[in-house]
Design goal:
The complex is a heterotetramer of chains A (286), B (519), C (327) and D (511).
Chain A (H helix, E strand, L loop, with lengths): L2 H6 L8 H24 L1 H4 L31 H36 L2 H15 L3 H12 L3 H28 L2 H9 L3 H37 L11 H8 L8 H32 L1
Chain C lengths: L1 H38 L4 H6 L7 H11 L5 H13 L13 H33 L3 H16 L2 H15 L15 H28 L2 H7 L4 H19 L1 H18 L5 H11 L2 H29 L19
Helix pairs in contact in C: 1-4, 1-13, 5-8, 5-11, 5-13, 6-8, 7-8, 7-11, 8-10, 8-11, 10-13, 11-12, 11-13, 12-13
Chain D lengths: L11 E6 L17 H7 L7 E3 L5 E3 L2 E7 L4 E6 L13 H12 L8 H4 L5 E8 L2 E6 L6 H5 L9 H7 L17 E7 L3 E6 L17 E6 L3 H9 L5 E3 L3 H4 L7 E6 L2 E8 L9 H10 L2 H8 L30 H10 L4 E2 L5 E3 L2 E2 L1 E7 L4 H16 L3 E7 L1 H8 L6 E7 L5 H6 L13 H12 L3 H18 L2 E5 L2 E6 L3 E2 L2 E2 L5 E2 L4 E2 L1
Parallel strand pairs in D: 1-10, 1-11, 17-18, 17-19
Antiparallel strand pairs in D: 2-3, 4-5, 5-7, 6-7, 8-9, 9-10, 11-21, 12-21, 13-19, 13-20, 14-15, 15-16, 22-25, 23-24
Classes of the chains: A mainly alpha (286), B alpha/beta (519), C mainly alpha (327), D alpha+beta (511).
The complex binds adenosine-5'-triphosphate (2 copies) and magnesium ion (2 copies).
């Protein structure tokens, strides 16, 4: 789902009571904390070597020894999920971060650029926005070829237009706000107004969008991996793990179910935090 | 007796009782005004009469009869049969109380569709036309096909009343039906309500505008903090208010005109044939005037008459398409308004909600302005404190963010910012229209003091004539971008020449303390 | 009289604007696709000949000449656009068939899938918006929707397939001929779209419910159903309509995954195969098709939105795609 | 499907196959090296001779034949009255047109050209309308076997003349042969529909028109989906079942698993590049991996592990190699030490002169899950002896970029064929699938000799030497012999299988 649209869903939505909101936030925070831990120090959470293959142990059901069971190569699914966190979330973070920085740069420059430059830039963005993020990422992979790096590039490029557009509209809107005008009337030079009043606002909106965009990017990257266009075996990566579990659904459902749950939990947690941040920033900005 | 009979109405929320034991009787053919300051529970009372209290609030009463029906203990379903058919509501925000996506005809027809499903087709159209005719809406057939946004405020208000009376309810409750309207339109709407009462409907008029009460109400009920403090025939209560609250209300209605000697020195600002176009539309058309030091020029006119556009040209943020502006005899334009000269003329914008960066504290906003003047860093804090004092705010406000300020406080911060750079001319674009009466009076007083202290010239944009009388020396009346009349306040008020000015004055006279619009 | 002429001129300008935007977006997409040909790593002819080709350099040069790779880039670009203008998308490298035919053959199956998915999504979303009332119920629905939206569509598909086909046997597993076989893939594809749509609609409804005019509606004695069907839903559908292009686009994107999971033929599979085989003419075709779908749906949305919300009638210029979400 | 309709004239049989690569230009067995191409197009393409399950040859499109010049000339007398689906007659000219097309460099045939003798092919002569002579520059024994496959089957000369370039993509009116079925509709990645050729009367055993009137081939790349359509009855015959799913085939269905003859699934160690230039390293590689356990566990005992570069069912198989290179990490370590890889880096990988002992394996997408698991097992076995094996899964374009210039350490595939001559393409210096870059004149001579020898015993001896050469030299590490696993629902009768385990539908019946 598009970051842009995902983010609108938070508008002025008061969560059902403060308590529910708090519970959701705490749950999301716990999930994110665990994920952050898994991404930074997987060795501390994992119980096995994620690459350790022992075909004699293949397709064991979840047990005390293997919490999420084992896959076809006898690897510990739990440990692979833990080790996969870094890569799977990393792509989302990296792509979103890059898209944010580059997008804000392009967008805010376009907003202050001469008309024809701005118009040309926006046409390109319009064309790119013509494609849903996943399709766009897919097409980028089509051009660059499959592979982990290309997937990251593809997801970044796919996310980029949203930020460019947001940065441009926000820059425009914020430079024509009454308070920006007031600062200019008082005598603050135009570029100073831009840096002190406009840019922080643009970055704030873009960051909020980014917290939501991470989820989108994680899903897109997982989708590409699932299609076999991303990282390859034996890399522990959730989309790929899910893909290799798909023919074992009846026999050994745990191979596909747990990586899938990991993706869902991550994206839900990220979205909750993103939504709450967004709602807060709107309350503040209103 | 049909109409309304309420005894001991209590409305309670989580924080306690808001309405405490209200009694209200309204008979058919009668118009009763419910009067009180903002927040006394007028709207809640009205909503409780339709069983439409907001979530979290509960109503209880010893007696509550609507059109002869005892509604105590009614469930949602039972209320629904009543609403629109026996009791109708014209709610407070007329401009946004019609569904913007539906045609006026559909909106007016809706109560009929709900309560008289048998009326259909041509019969329904006839009933809609009747309702629209009844509220004296010109060209009812055309209006029925239009959408709310295609109607002016006054027409919209009348359409709303038409939809309320379409199913011929016995009781009509009108919640501040004139707040959002231009003074000229207010009178028409009030007369319409009177005529509804004269057709046998029990009308409740909710307002805090005593002029409106005088004009149409038979009786008046004065509310204070959720309780009735005084009630009686309108004339009697107005002539001899017994309760102190009533007395303040009646007293606040009149303002003394300003009397100052005109100054004869060279004008600070002079404009000659100023014109500004937006595409085909001429927003400001050949306007000329002068402003002198220490004096105030009021610019009056309807919404859209070009007041803001004019103000922006004066400040030097918009370029005039034709005509000249001179400050102290030298040409003034966005190009000239650079560097230190930029600071000579300052603007207080129309909308206090958008004028402050929501992320910045009040102190930071003011420091930014102070810094522009080249004040050394060490003194800025003290200067900010002085500025806040000057506009009547305590220094503690420096740490607040805009979201933590009321509208009046924001407006004062905006004024402080403008003053920070030591302007000679202050342009205020409707600085008080968004504020309630008491806050408004305080700000106007402050401005007069400042003008005196700093020998400040002011251009004061407003469409409220009452304010003009209290603050301005001269007045410029604008209509459709053109100046239709100009001169000293006293003369204009005494002998208006242009029909538009006269119309403005008439409307204002019928509502001398008419609240500012919130447009 | 001058008024009607004005209106006619406005309509003409509007149609011109729409046509211009269609052409612009298609041209942009075609240019991007053309550039993609140039940046692609590796020799295009090698890619074209595919694995295990034992072809001499002379033969390769012949192919280059035949495809015009030996001419200046601008000339190639002009020729490329000229061919596109004639509706000729070229020939698939791998299938040796006109791209129009490759895509045309599979289009039906994808249309069937996405069409049904769209219907299911709209029905589900409307049902959830109309039937789920009350704060708690709505919060629960919102939570479920969030989970659906956060789950990879291929995973949802696998779970549905495993439960309803493999274990319960309610639906056939595959087969383009058995009409029932489309149900499960369509549901899979519809779920996230339904979740998104119902979130957008519910948000719109809730926003509309906070509008002051709703008090008027209630004061007229309207029932909750009438409130939704005659008022709030219409407000919400303005937001839904501006999302139309996005929703259709995400159906197409999702189709790639769903067709893979359910082993269904269709554009998604064609795209995927074209990607792995580097069949660039087909990729170009898919890019242009998505762009076309996008402009068409957007144009329709642009035309429909003012019907839903007359306030926007004059405000929206026809030029340029509208992906701005409701504010 | 039409499973309930008995053998009435509109009977339809649904056959689910994996088939994902068909749409990538693999519809033509004359150019494709993939098994699937020959498997599906057998329905359309007839051959000169028929090879029975016992390996013997019987007449098909050729009524009789003579082998002359010690195997360098084959003369076929063709059956009369055979027509292609487009009505043109099958005659000597048609044979010549097809064979000439296969060897034409423009055709870029991968395997069929090699089966037609490759450089040994000297030409086809039209003796008369119904007699054709195929000449080789030296005796070429595998030819009859080759001539019995669909790879050397016959397209209508009209097609070859007018639309040869479309054969790779295939389709109705393009894929036109003399076979029992007419290709009547093809939707890439979806299905191929074959309709019975009612005129057919030239089947191998005098077989006539097929009884199943419509053969619908469903292309279902997902294994679980193929199993699903079998269980739900949507398909009557399902091929390419992975071993892990065999246990879930419904009990009343029959499972037919025929081990592919030919070269087992193997690893090809590139001896002209990187660490595998050293024979000791190659030997150590083969001893460090526990093939037995991996194959047993991953394929659920469905596939036997391989000991030699010929499968156990292939004529010429050298059984003496069984058990000759067992899993022995100690031996592997010793060999690596001898080869000078004595250092260790931080990861425990062996080093020599600062260089890590690492090899890069390129594989072609898509990799089936079980092969990925096997690769993982091998990687972890190798790591135990300090050998780092990296694996790259590449899409075809990227794969070829490395395969062409041979810039990889190892790659993998299996290659089916009934005649041991297939080793020539893998091990001869100029063999087109010589991924190991073997270049050994003695071996080349041996392989040529094998191709030229017709006496089975003499041939077996020659190929035993080739197999032993590999066991010593370790250019190819055979891992296991896959089988084509086909499940058949009980209502299908009369289905036969060729030597590769591919179902033959000409004689099948439903009901
Ligand atoms: N939904 C609510 N929940 C709790 N308190 C409320 C709610 N709505 C209104 N109030 C409070 O009830 C009091 C009366 O509100 P009400 O709207 O009736 O005032 P009013 O007399 O109509 O004022 P105004 O002239 O500004 O319209 C106010 O103090 C307000 O803050
Ligand atoms: N930037 C603009 N572009 C186009 N038209 C404009 C612009 N600004 C103002 N106008 C038009 O010029 C006319 C005068 O507008 P202006 O804002 O000056 O009116 P105003 O008297 O200040 O009204 P209000 O009382 O509502 O503030 C209006 O018709 C308005 O629509
Ligand atoms: Mg009120
Ligand atoms: Mg204004």
């Amino acid at each position: 789902m598009s970051t842009e649209i995902r983010s609108t869903l938070v508008r002025r939505r008061s969560a059902p009571g403060g308590t529910a909101r708090r519970v959701a936030l705490i749950a999301a925070a716990v999930v994110l904390l665990a994920l952050g831990f898994a991404a930074l120090a997987p060795g501390l959470l994992a119980t096995h070597d994620p690459l350790l293959t022992d075909v004699r142990q293949a397709l064991q059901a979840p047990s005390a020894q293997h919490w999420f069971g084992t896959d076809q190569s006898g690897r510990d699914v739990y440990s692979r999920v833990v080790f996969g966190a870094g890569r799977s979330i990393g792509i989302g973070l990296l792509a979103t971060g890059l898209a944010l920085v580059v997008g804000v740069a392009i967008g805010s420059l376009a907003a202050v650029a001469p008309r024809p430059v701005d118009a040309a830039a926006m046409r390109v963005i319009d064309v790119l926005l013509a494609f849903p993020e996943f399709l766009l990422a897919l097409l980028v992979v089509a051009v660059l070829g499959p592979g982990a790096t290309n997937v990251a590039v593809a997801v970044t490029l796919a996310a980029l237009p949203v930020y460019v557009r947001l940065a441009r509209t926000r820059t425009r809107a914020l430079s024509s706000t009454e308070y920006a005008e007031a600062a200019r009337i008082v005598g603050v030079p135009r570029p100073v107004v831009h840096v002190t009043h406009v840019l922080p606002g643009v970055l704030a909106s873009a960051s909020v969008l980014a917290t939501i965009g991470i989820g989108t990017s994680i899903l897109a990257a997982a989708g590409l991996s699932f299609l076999g266009l991303g990282p390859t075996e034996p890399t522990p990566e959730w989309g790929l793990m899910l893909s290799s579990g798909r023919n074992l659904l009846v026999q050994a459902p745990w191979v596909a179910v747990f990586p899938g749950l990991a993706i869902t939990a991550t994206v839900v947690a990220v979205s909750i935090v993103g939504r709450i941040l967004r709602a807060r920033s709107e309350e503040r900005g209103a | 007796m049909s109409g309304i009979r309420v005894r001991g109405l209590r409305i309670a929320g989580a924080d306690g009782e808001i309405v405490r034991g209200l009694d209200l009787d309204v008979a058919a053919w009668e118009c009763v005004a419910l009067v009180g300051e903002s927040g006394t529970g007028k709207s809640l009372t009205a909503r409780s009469l339709l069983g439409l209290l907001p979530r979290g609030l509960t109503a209880a009463a010893e007696t509550m009869e609507i059109d002869g029906v005892d509604v105590r203990g009614f469930g949602e379903r039972q209320w629904r049969t009543l609403r629109g058919r026996r009791v109708a509501l014209v709610s407070q925000d007329a401009l946004v109380s019609l569904d913007p996506l539906r045609r006026i005809g559909a909106e007016v027809a809706e109560p009929l569709r709900i309560h008289a499903p048998s009326v259909r087709g041509a019969a329904l159209r006839d009933r809609v036309r009747d309702a629209l005719t009844r509220v004296a809406l010109p060209e009812p057939d055309l209006r029925a096909r239009q959408y709310p946004h295609e109607l002016s405020g006054g027409l919209r208000q009348r359409a709303l009343i038409a939809s309320a009376v379409a199913a011929r309810p016995a009781v009509l409750i009108a919640d501040e039906p004139t707040t959002a309207l231009d003074a000229t339109v207010q009178a028409r709407v009030l007369d319409l309500l009177r005529s509804v009462a004269d057709e046998g409907v029990a009308v409740v008029l909710i307002t805090h505008d005593l002029a409106a009460v005088r004009r149409i109400a038979d009786r008046v009920v004065i509310l204070h903090e959720g309780a009735v403090v005084e009630t009686g025939p309108t004339a009697a209560v107005m002539a001899a208010p017994r309760d102190p609250h009533t007395r303040t209300l009646v007293a606040a209605a009149a303002a003394a005109p300003l009397r100052r000697a005109p100054r004869t020195d060279a004008p600070l600002l002079s404009a000659e044939g100023l014109t500004k176009r937006f595409g085909d539309r001429v927003a400001v058309d050949g306007v000329s005037f002068e402003v002198r030091r220490g004096r105030t020029l009021a610019v009056v006119g309807e919404s859209g008459s070009g007041k803001t556009t004019l103000a922006r040209m004066i400040v030097g943020v918009a370029e005039a398409d034709a005509g000249t502006l001179r400050v102290d005899g030298r040409a003034w334009s966005p190009r000239a308004a650079r560097g230190a000269a930029r600071r000579r003329i300052q603007l207080v914008q129309q909308n206090p909600w958008g004028a402050l960066d929501p992320r910045w504290s009040v102190g930071r906003t003011l420091r930014e302005a102070v810094a522009v003047t080249g004040a050394p860093r060490s003194q800025r804090r003290a200067l900010v404190t002085d500025l806040l004092r000057e506009v009547g705010l305590s220094p503690a406000f420096a740490t607040r963010r805009p979201a933590q300020l009321s509208g009046g406080q924001r407006q004062r911060v905006a004024i402080a910012r403008a003053l920070a750079v030591g302007p000679e001319l202050l342009v205020l674009d409707e600085p008080v229209s968004a504020l309630d009466a008491t806050v408004r009076a305080r700000i106007l007083d402050r401005l007069l003091d400042l003008q005196h202290e700093r020998d400040l010239a002011m251009v004061f944009v407003t469409h409220d004539l009452d304010v003009v009388r209290g603050i301005a020396d001269d007045v410029l009346v604008m209509q459709d971008g053109r100046v239709v009349e100009a001169g000293p306040v006293a003369r204009i008020f005494a002998e208006p020449r242009h029909p538009f000015t006269r119309e403005l004055l008439d409307a204002a006279a019928s509502a001398p303390s008419g609240p500012g619009t919130t447009a | 009289m001058p008024r009607s002429r004005d209106r006619a001129r406005a309509a003409l300008m509007r149609i011109g604007g729409i046509a211009a935007s269609v052409v612009l977006v298609l041209w942009g997409a075609a240019t991007l696709a053309f550039l993609a040909f140039r940046i692609i790593p590796g020799d295009a002819v090698d890619v074209l000949l595919g694995p295990q080709a034992q072809v001499s350099e002379a033969v390769k040069d012949g192919i280059r000449a035949e495809l015009g790779f030996d001419r200046p880039v601008l000339e190639q670009y002009a020729a490329f656009l000229a061919r596109l203008a004639r509706g000729d998308l070229g020939e698939s490298y791998q299938l040796r068939l006109p791209v129009t035919e490759v895509i045309g053959r599979q289009l039906g199956s994808t249309l069937q899938l996405t069409g049904l998915a769209l219907v299911i999504a709209i029905v589900l979303a409307l049902a959830s918006v109309l039937l789920v009332r009350g704060r708690t119920a709505r919060a629960v629905a919102g939570g479920v929707e969030l989970v659906v939206l956060s789950s990879p569509v291929f995973w949802t598909g696998l779970l549905l397939l495993s439960v309803f086909s493999f274990q319960l046997g309610w639906f056939p597993v595959s087969g383009a001929r058995d009409p029932a076989a489309v149900v499960l893939p369509a549901i899979t594809l519809a779920l996230p779209v339904a979740a998104l749509l119902s979130q957008v609609l519910r948000d719109g409804v809730e926003t509309a419910e906070r509008e002051p005019f709703l008090l008027t509606v209630r004061a007229r004695g309207a029932s909750p159903l009438r409130e939704s069907t005659h008022h709030t839903l219409r407000h919400a559908s303005v937001g839904g309509a501006t999302l139309a292009a996005y929703l259709v686009g995400s159906l197409l994107g999702g189709a790639v995954l769903v067709e893979t999971v359910f082993a269904r033929p269709g554009i998604g599979r064609v795209t995927l195969t074209a990607i792995t085989d580097r069949d660039l003419p087909v990729v170009t075709g898919v890019i242009l098709l998505s762009a076309l779908v996008f402009v068409v749906v957007n144009t329709i949305a642009d035309l429909v939105v003012p019907l839903l919300d007359p306030r926007l009638a004059r405000a929206t210029p026809a030029l340029g795609p509208r992906t701005e979400v409701p504010a | 499907s039409g499973t309930d309709e008995g053998s009435s004239s509109d009977s339809e049989l649904v056959w689910a196959i994996e088939g994902a690569n068909l749409s990538a230009g693999h519809m033509d067995p004359q150019t494709s090296q993939l098994d699937v191409s020959a498997m599906v197009q057998r329905a359309v393409l007839d051959s000169l001779v028929f090879q029975g399950a016992d390996g013997s040859f019987t007449p098909w499109l050729a009524e009789s034949w003579d082998v002359e010049d010690g195997g360098a000339t084959y003369t076929f007398r063709l059956r009369q009255g055979v027509t292609f689906h487009d009505g043109s007659p099958f005659d000597a000219a048609a044979v010549k047109a097809n064979f000439d097309r296969i060897v034409d460099p423009e055709t870029a045939s991968a395997q069929a050209a090699a089966m037609l003798g490759g450089d040994l092919y000297a030409g086809t002569d039209v003796v008369d309308e119904n007699t054709v002579r195929v000449r080789f520059s030296q005796p070429y024994a595998p030819f009859l076997q080759a001539a019995s496959t669909a790879l050397l089957g016959f397209y209508s000369p009209k097609v070859i003349e007018t639309s040869a370039d479309q054969l790779k993509a295939g389709g109705p009116d393009v894929t036109v042969g003399t076979g029992p079925y007419v290709l009547s509709s093809y939707t890439p990645d979806q299905e191929i529909v074959y309709t019975a050729n009612e005129d057919y009367s030239w089947g191998p055993d005098g077989g006539g028109a097929p009884r199943v009137k419509t053969l619908r081939v469903e292309i279902l790349p997902e294994a679980s989906v193929r199993l699903g359509v079998l269980s739900s009855g949507e398909a009557d015959v399902v091929t390419n079942l992975p071993p892990n799913l065999v246990s879930q085939v419904p009990a009343d269905d029959t499972v037919n698993a025929i081990e592919y003859p030919g070269l087992p699934y193997s690893l090809y160690l590139n001896e002209k590049y990187g660490v595998f230039a050293d024979q000791k390293v190659r030997q150590a590689f083969s001893r460090a991996i526990d093939v037995d356990t991996a194959v047993q566990e991953i394929f659920f005992g469905q596939y036997p592990r391989a000991w030699s570069i010929l499968g156990a069912t292939t004529p010429g198989y050298d059984a003496s190699l069984e058990g000759s290179w067992p899993f022995d990490p100690a031996a592997a370590n010793a060999l690596l030490d001898e080869a000078g890889w004595t250092g260790r880096d931080a990861d425990g990988i062996r080093t020599k002169d600062g260089q890590r002992l690492t090899a890069r394996w390129i594989a072609w997408t898509p990799v089936p899950d079980d092969r990925a698991a096997l690769a993982n097992a091998l990687q972890s076995d190798l790591r135990a002896v300090g050998f780092d094996l990296q694996r790259e899964v590449l899409e075809p374009g990227a794969y070829n970029e490395q395969y062409g210039p041979k810039t990889f350490d190892l790659t993998d595939w299996g290659f089916s064929g009934v005649d041991a001559d297939l080793l020539r393409s893998h091990l001869a210096t100029d063999g087109f699938q010589n991924a190991s870059q073997v270049s050994d004149p003695a071996l080349d001579a041996l392989l040529e000799q094998g191709a030229a020898t017709t006496d089975p015993a003499a041939r077996a001896d020659i190929y035993a030497q080739v197999q032993q050469w590999n066991a010593q030299h370790v250019a190819i590490v055979p891992l296991y012999s896959p089988a084509l696993i086909t499940a058949v629902r009980p209502d299908v009768t009369g289905l036969s299988f060729d030597l590769y385990g591919r179902p033959l539908f000409a004689t099948a019946n439903l009901g």
